[in-house]
Amino acid sequence: MPEQLFIVILVCLGILVYTAIASRRRAEARLRSRVRESFGSRERRKYSDADLERISYEFRTYGTEGFFLDDITWNDLQMDEVFGLADRTFSGVGESALYRILRTPSMDPAEIAERNRLIRFFIENDAQREKLWLSYAHIGKPRESVFKLVDNLAELENYSVWQDLLCLAAIAASIVLAVLNPSGMAILPIFAVVGSIIVYYRRKARIEPFLACVRAAVHMVRSAQEIASSGIPELETYTGELKKNAAPLRTLPAKASLLGNDGTVAGGLDAMLMDYLRMLTHMDLIAFSSLLSQVRAHTGELRRLMEVLGYLEAMVSAASFRAGLPQTAEPDIAPEGERAFDAEGLYHPFLPEGVTNDICADRCVLITGSNASGKSTFLKATALAAILAQSIGAAPASRFRTSLWHVYSSMALRDDIAARESYFVVEIRSLRRILDAMDAGEPVLAFVDEVLRGTNTVERIAASTEILRHIAGGSGLCFAATHDVELTRLLEEQFTNVHFTEKVTEDAVIFPYKLLPGPAQSRNAIRLLSVMGYDESITRASEEAAQHFLATGRWEKEGTP
User: Fold this and answer.
1) Residues near 504 by Cβ (< 8 Å), separated by ≥ 6?
2) Interior CA angle at 483 toward 480 and 487, to 5°?
3) Closest of 411, 383, 366, 308 to residue 517, by C-alpha
4) For the segment 364-375, what is each residue's pLDDT rounded down to a tens digit?
5) Directed axis angle between helix 126-139 and helix 299-323, to 10°?
């Protein structure tokens, strides 16, 4: 009978081991498939406010020195959505690095060239790219920014394990007493186990954010060791840096086996059984104390490790983004002091199959045309070309030559009710920051949509003329869109005029979305009212009033008081 029981136990253990191994292999296979399918995907990831808070933590805390895209420009150009299109990262360090890179376009041609070298390598070498990405997938994305988790370590006092050891001792003593006195003490181990579990959850809840930090550190050290030993010559500079900074933390992965699964890779039955064992023994909390001391002693090396890891994965993600676009052009960077912006086949990355346009600007550009004709989309596409060329090394275009710019925009503004500021006040504040940057000598590339739309026509045209004239007198470039055709004449010496147009038929409006030379000549707004079903009396009276104004310069008709 004992032999049969022993065989049953062995069979059960064998089944458990087989199930655990099979479960892990399935999880790894799913992960490999996800990694492979992610490359070149054009899916646009969506983020909650909490996600964006986590992702932007490193930039907001450490990355705001020197030039960066301010909040107005970032929001005008829908850069959160652009980030979602470019983000194919699997780790918290990677997504933070990619966000920071997009937020801080480089002004260093050598840095842009190095990014291009890495991105081309990752595009062309599937096996090495997938190997890195699998390693990053095991780091995962904790609920908090990994950089914030490391910062939080300073807030935790030294973790004492005496309560955990006391719980272990209580369980051991209760078992001994129960064996010695089964009739009187049999229930004692139950009380000891329940008490130990209660203490476990209370203590674990208090240190959970810090436990997540230590887990993240362990995964990053393990990934750094894997990448450093990958033997990829093209990454030698970075693998050497990883090896150096991982050295003082190299024992973390071995110690961390007791911490448990954190959800970065699905756990199996073995993980569930280990969770129960941790509740009873507190072994993860005891191990945490030792790991915490080691991480705290080498925070500098850990932070540098995170920066290098994040940068490499950001380049892999940028490679995926570029591979998913129909065409990209690495920038031909103009010599310092030259004012250049020359693009062929330019398109917006949200509309990769849309109409492309060419633009060559060695002076400021004024864009006219009706609503929905393509002015705002062209402005955004042009601004994004500059930003992406200086961040991920390529513009959405077939050819791109440019100077290196500080990009500013004033486009999608709105009233600030909380600050009790009208649209016009918000607008002039937005324009003022562009003027200040130009007056400070920054190499500004500015994008303005409908200058001073928040005020009356006479003052808008007068003030817009002088503001745009002042901008054109600086060393930067400005792309401005307007409905005020008067500006095309007033600014023709400072601005190159281009326009978008539309074709209005009896029952439809067709927008070619092609940029054409010269100012807009068509006046189709009233005709559009007719196409959209407005009463004929309204459209006829509108047309008569417009013709009268063009002929006399006055809105009122003869005899009107």
Assistant:
1) 510, 524, 527, 528, 531
2) 65
3) 366
4) 999 998 878 889
5) 130
Delimit the domains of the chain by residue range: 2-40+51-323, 332-522
Provide the residue type at 11 as one letter. V
Contact present, 505 and 391 (Cβ < 8 Å) = no
Q: Which helix (H) or strand (E) holds 544?
A: helix 536-552
Mean pLDDT computed over 396-417 = 85
Q: What is the DSSP letter of 460?
A: H
List the structure tokens of 380: 């955004």
What is residue 265's predicted lDDT score, i.e. its pLDDT?
43
The pTM of this model reads 0.84
Query: Which residue from 195, 178, 200 is spatially nearest to 187, judged by alpha carbons?
Result: 178
User: 374 to each of 25, 339, 366, 368, 370, how far by Cα in Å?
Assistant: 51, 25, 14, 10, 8
Look at residue 263 in the predicted model and tell me its pLDDT. Answer: 46
On the CB side of 67, CA atoms within 13 Å amount to 20
* Sign of the torsion formed by the C-alpha atoms of 278, 298, 293 and 200: negative
N-term to C-term CA, the chain: 116
Amino acid at residue number 166 = L
| Domain 332-522: which CATH number of 3.40.50.300, 3.30.505.50, 2.40.50.200, 3.40.1370.10 | 3.40.50.300
